[in-house]
Design goal:
The protein is α+β, with helices and mostly antiparallel strands and 229 residues long. The chain contains six helices and ten strands.
Length: 229
């Protein structure tokens, strides 16, 4: 058998893991597929012949969710021959993060889209089509590592935020409870991570909370390490 006859010929797809924090939960946007397999799935689809992976990811995310574009970062490739029951498909996953993203408009091309708690997918209580549970699990594992030594956690925050709000992002991403005082000391000692806005916000406890914004750092000189479980 010649090398040409053995050359692989199959479609390439993209799948997008879009995450936000709403109602005090880490949530992922999913699409209710109108075609088989008729299950919830991550937004995504096939790449056109003259299209880059990045363009395809932007197109499928907008077309299937109706949401505004998000900055997307490539996570990994999935190539198991039986990952799609219809035919052999290789897919490339992307991760996007946004602050308190809105509900998707109804009636998108692929089917109704909505936000669901990521925890429900990870614990198998909400099944997804194809290998999309693995895609989500790997994206969150990537995120959990990324927030240790980068400013990725602030992608979930508004332009100005309190230390308590930033701590809650870490708690939801890592699925842990953090000591407020220890977290404050760690964050304030990371060069270039955050800077004060000079404003304060009234809180329910009566003591105003200082507001901060993103600092100039992209990578953290002093990592914010996840507590040992």
């Amino acid at each position: 058998m010649s090398e040409d006859s053995e050359r692989a010929r199959f479609p390439v797809a993209v799948d997008i893991v879009a995450l936000t924090i709403r109602d005090d939960a880490l949530r992922v946007v999913v699409v209710n597929r109108r075609k088989a397999p008729r299950r919830l799935a991550l937004p995504g689809g096939f790449v056109f012949a003259r299209e880059s992976l990045e363009k395809a990811a932007d197109r499928k995310f907008a077309g299937e969710t109706g949401l505004d574009p998000l900055p997307l970062r490539q996570i990994r490739v999935y190539s198991k021959p039986d990952r799609d029951p219809r035919e052999r498909v290789i897919t490339v996953s992307y991760l996007g993060i946004g602050h308190d993203l809105p509900d998707p408009p109804r009636g998108t091309a692929a089917g109704p889209a909505r936000w669901i708690p990521a925890s429900g997918v990870l614990d198998d209580s909400v099944p997804l089509a194809f290998d999309h549970r693995d895609v989500l699990r790997d994206a969150i594992a990537h995120l959990r590592a990324a927030v240790e030594d980068s400013t990725a956690a602030m992608d979930f925050c508004a332009e100005s935020f309190t230390i308590g709000e930033l701590r809650r992002v870490y708690e939801l991403v890592w699925d842990v409870t953090l000591d407020a005082r220890n977290f404050y000391r760690k964050i304030r000692n990371v060069p270039g991570f955050i800077e004060p806005t000079g404003t304060f916000r009234q809180t329910s406890t009566g003591r105003p909370a200082q507001e901060f914004r993103r600092g100039g750092a992209v990578r953290l000189e002093t990592p914010v390490l996840r507590p040992a479980s």
